[in-house]
Amino acid sequence: MSRPVQYNTHIKFAGIPEGYMGEGFMATNLEKVVSLARKNSIWPLPFATSCCGIEFMATAASHYDLARFGAERMSFSPRQCDLILVMETIAKKMAPVLRQVYLQMAEPRWVMAVGACASSGGVFDTYSVLQGIDQVIPVDVYVPGCPPRPEAILDGFLKIQDLVNAEGLRRRHSDQYKELLAGYGIQ
Ligand code: SF4
User: Fold this and answer.
1) Which of 142, 155, 171, 173 would bridge 119 by S-S if both were Cys, CB 3.0 to 4.6 A apart?
2) Which among 72, 145, 74 has a CA at the least distance from the CA of 113?
3) What is the pTM of this model?
4) Which residues line ligand 1 (CB under 6 A)?
């Protein structure tokens, strides 16, 4: 006898933006629609050269399935990504390379520091290791741990999604944002 098909009734779909709804119509503003689309179609760039990268591989694989959040399309070209995930120990020699990759990303762009090394240098308090990537590029979300488990990476990703959703279309043109970039010597 065949078993009945079980459906998961807890699947969460992308939320409907605020607006006015009636029979057969919905009205909202452009900013909310753009935010909804951006939030649910992030293209991540994994910048991984050591152990934390392995955790990210698990995060993207079938069990944790990052694709559930619309982020299954890894982008290994900085020009086609929205979010860079820095997952590793960054040696000072590597810092200019990371910065160059960040500069090649188009706006709007977001940055996640994954793990203790990317966030603060981790256990490598040495002359050769950058003590946190926020010394060379601005960071939006820090994920603690050495290494962080895939659940923590997913949690960080959800926080990025919240930021993306809440960001107005004009933020990247604001004086505050220009000041932030200027603090990093970026025009
Ligand atoms: S935080 Fe820990 S696991 Fe991640 S790259 Fe550094 S040493 Fe490796």
Assistant:
1) 142
2) 145
3) 0.89
4) 50-52, 88-89, 115-117, 122, 146-147
